Amino acid sequence: MIPETPLGAGPAGREQTPLRMPDGPQGTSVGASPLHVLRFLAAALQAKAAVEVGTGSGETALWLLRGMVPDGVVTSIDADASVHREARGTLRDAGVPAGRTRLIAGRAVDLMPRLTEGGYDLVSVNIATTEYPQYLELGLRLLRPGGVIVFAGTQLAGPDTRSAMAQALRELIREVQSDDTLVPVTLPTGPGLLAITKRA
Ligand SMILES: C[S@@+](CC[C@H](N)C(=O)[O-])C[C@H]1O[C@@H](n2cnc3c(N)ncnc32)[C@H](O)[C@@H]1O
Asked: Which of 35, 53, 59, 141 is the most buried (most CB within 10 A)?
């Protein structure tokens, strides 16, 4: 079992404040990118705990944290341990206290089953994959009722192609459509998002 970070355990003596970020010059667009969507969802859910699959540069984790409650924690998994160095730099440069992220190296399919069932408000899958259905099952297990799982890059799968990724995406959609406890939406931003909430 991966030890859970106690929520609300910020660095001693440091007041937890929201991580603010500019969207652009005042009075212009507020943004419609996948990152804006993730930040919005994290804020709307008042997310205290999120799981991210695919840490990469740390940029997505940063935007999730900007939407989450001030002491919220992102658990971010990447199969490539070397990316966590860059991600730590991204988060540190943005002023994120170290206690707000847990960066874990390994394959998400191996690590997600070790996270606490029902312990998360939001799961963000940042990889376009042939294992979409498996990530749906693993991610839904982690969500509290009313939580949301977001798949990024779904338009890369091209639903009318015969690629393994497209087939996996179709299977994912079939599974979502056949489950009355799930409410999905496709968002045509960036490489495509599929967001699914688990009814409370
Ligand atoms: C598109 S990048 C994520 C970019 C990230 N959102 C960012 O802010 O930079 C995908 C990442 O997922 C990782 N990855 C790919 N397959 C994985 C798997 N099965 N389990 C965990 N991480 C994986 C890759 O190593 C890569 O760093």
From this structure: 53
3-class secondary-structure state, position 87: helix
Ligand 1 pocket check for 171: Cβ under 6 Å = no
* CATH numbers and ranges of domains, the chain: 34-198 (3.40.50.150)
Which ipTM did the prediction report? 0.98
d(CA 38, CA 166): 23
The tens place of each residue's pLDDT in the chain, 200 residues long, gives 464 543 333 333 344 677 776 666 666 678 899 999 999 999 999 999 999 999 999 999 999 999 999 999 999 999 999 999 999 999 999 999 999 999 999 999 999 999 999 999 999 999 988 999 999 999 999 999 999 999 998 888 766 778 888 899 999 999 999 999 999 999 999 999 999 999 99
Both tokens assigned to 191: 């490489």
21 alpha carbon – ligand 1 mean position (Å): 24
Residue nearest to atom 11 of ligand 1 (CA): 54
